[in-house]
Amino acid sequence: MAQTIPHYLIFETAGGFCGIAWSDAGIVRFQLPTKTAEATERLLLRRLPDAEAGAPTPGVLETVAAVKRYFQGEETDFSGVELDLAGQDAFFREIYAAARRIGWGRTTTYGALAKELGAGPEAARDVGQAMAKNPVALIIPCHRVLAAGGKIGGFSAPGGSTSKTRMLELEGVNLAPPPPAQQSLGF
């Protein structure tokens, strides 16, 4: 069986330059924004060295338009985007499916996602590893999965946890500690 070479497109959003790669089966890779098209292309091709620039399919164009809306702060749902997760571990695919159900402006934790899948608390590390290896960040909203206690946790995308925080803020999620319940006397 001949393997198809994925195609890709680099495009600009309000958040920077993103990259998307696809096969006949669906989106295989998504690159979160960087400051330049060259940096985005370099990062995308590091993961898919055989990919070739190509004309996007209608489904890819719809996804690109949704990504642009997302980075303008418009509520966006990526749960219907066709993905090609061939080659991913079966448990990771289960984790990704669960993560895709986390809606706009909502968060969960690595442990809660593991529990949702019927796994024990030790599987929280597996959830964290799956999020770190997420090939289509944003489309599988790994930024909505937090560490224990609602802490930001890691984020392997450009900008690290700062980017994760910005994406959550776009969705109206504020991770800052709440203001003190008691007023200060000011001295």
TrEMBL record:
Regions annotated as coiled coil: none
Catalytic activity, reaction form: a 6-O-methyl-2'-deoxyguanosine in DNA + L-cysteinyl-[protein] = S-methyl-L-cysteinyl-[protein] + a 2'-deoxyguanosine in DNA; a 4-O-methyl-thymidine in DNA + L-cysteinyl-[protein] = a thymidine in DNA + S-methyl-L-cysteinyl-[protein]
Pfam families per UniProt: DNA_binding_1
Keyword Transport carried by entry: no
Residue intervals of the Methylated-DNA-[protein]-cysteine S-methyltransferase DNA binding domain: 91-173
InterPro entries xrefs: MethylDNA_cys_MeTrfase_AS, MethylDNA_cys_MeTrfase_DNA-bd, MethylDNA_cys_MeTrfase_DNAb, MGMT_N_sf, WH-like_DNA-bd_sf
Keywords assigned by UniProt, alphabetized: DNA damage, DNA repair, Methyltransferase, Transferase
CDD domains hit by this protein: ATase
Protein name per the record: Methylated-DNA--[protein]-cysteine S-methyltransferase
Lineage, broadest ranks: Bacteria, Pseudomonadati, Pseudomonadota, Alphaproteobacteria, Hyphomicrobiales
